[in-house]
Amino acid sequence: MKIAIIGSGISGLVAAYQLHSEHDVTVYEANSYIGGHTNTRTVQHQGHDFHIDTGFIVFNDRTYPNFIKLLDELGVHSQPTSMSFSVRNQKNGLEYNGTSLNGFFAQRRNLFRPQFYRFLREIVRFNREGTELAITDEESDLTVAQFLKEGGYSRFFAEHYLLPMGAAIWSCPPETFANFPMQFIAQFYHHHGLLSLKDRPTWRVIEGGSQEYVKRLTAPFQDRIELNTPVQKVERQADCVRLHFANGQPQEFDEVIFACHSDQALGLLPDADMVERELLHQFPYSRNTAILHTDISVLPRSRRAWANWNYHVREDQTRQATVTYNMNMLQHLDTTKLPDEAVFCVTLNESELIDPDKVLYRAAYSHPIYTTGRLAAQRRHYEVIRRNRTSFCGAYWGNGFHEDGVKSAMAVVEQFQDPDPKSDRGSIPAALSYGSRI
């Protein structure tokens, strides 16, 4: 079978990796590199090479089972890291790193502030109530903002803990995160060990940068990847699917797999039907600018507050997420031999605060935004797999991360075991056995 895959992110590459030996697969990528959010840049700094991730960075040993199986199969090595988190508030000057008491009281004056101790108690209460919400059998449509209001949580707690952390994880404005479904957040935090001080998963980074797994994953079908080739339109016929490009002749395929974002897929399908529009419209995206640089002025003023993830609460915090990843800490980059001991950072959406002379690379990434309707749509993923010669996969069918990209790709791959796809996929169970073929 001749199959086109649109997008070379984790979902598209896993689909191609699993299908290429039995089918004629071609991957189309609009960018000049393979990998989507997996974008490792090799920086030459003072005579040394550093391989620095600018998009996908970390995974853990608990909630990424299928991705880890894939890495093991490919022989890709990783090393442990941590997910320490700090907050710096531009309005009131507050800084803290929640990893330890020394970091939490990085500003020693907070030892004498009753408000800060109330803040600690609210964090403990949130961990308890968040766990209760995560493990309950009852489904809730409560948003984060409603949860905070009904729970009587203080504005200080919201602005300095829950909203910055969520905005950093999903790379969206705090105001947008406030409208995320709270039960979804509680379940995610619970599964990732963010609601307890014990039994937390081990976070890991790929040695040599995340592009190491991309190189090995794509090696068997490297000649079937078309870079700098954006698809303009997908035209579906009774006997084929026709892909149109800005330059060159249309190409015909038996089926197409959309491994791009949901909004991009809809933009390529002028004949999208009611089911496709209904489901894909549940997953809007926000666009973020990532800047790789060496300007430490965007990190907390106190080095005791430096963390792997550093959120900056700005005066205009309803804007985009403003977070800086300390890549020296995250990837264990050894810069001690450099004359200036450079600190490599990746900062989202604060280009105006960064010294232009210290900018090394710029990129744009889009991240899914979740609404209270996302769960019902995700449960219907099977309805748009091998239907009308078309399938959809992507991390948006889960929590928006690499493991979800792998799982959604495998949901599509498993249905290609059926040589005679039917238009009515209603008999496929909603809970597919993701990842069974890895």
TrEMBL record:
<feature type="domain" description="Amine oxidase">
    <location>
        <begin position="10"/>
        <end position="286"/>
    </location>
</feature>
<dbReference type="InterPro" id="IPR036188">
    <property type="entry name" value="FAD/NAD-bd_sf"/>
</dbReference>
<dbReference type="InterPro" id="IPR002937">
    <property type="entry name" value="Amino_oxidase"/>
</dbReference>
<dbReference type="Pfam" id="PF01593">
    <property type="entry name" value="Amino_oxidase"/>
</dbReference>
<dbReference type="InterPro" id="IPR050464">
    <property type="entry name" value="Zeta_carotene_desat/Oxidored"/>
</dbReference>
<dbReference type="GO" id="GO:0016491">
    <property type="term" value="F:oxidoreductase activity"/>
</dbReference>
<protein>
    <submittedName>
        <fullName>Protoporphyrinogen oxidase</fullName>
    </submittedName>
</protein>
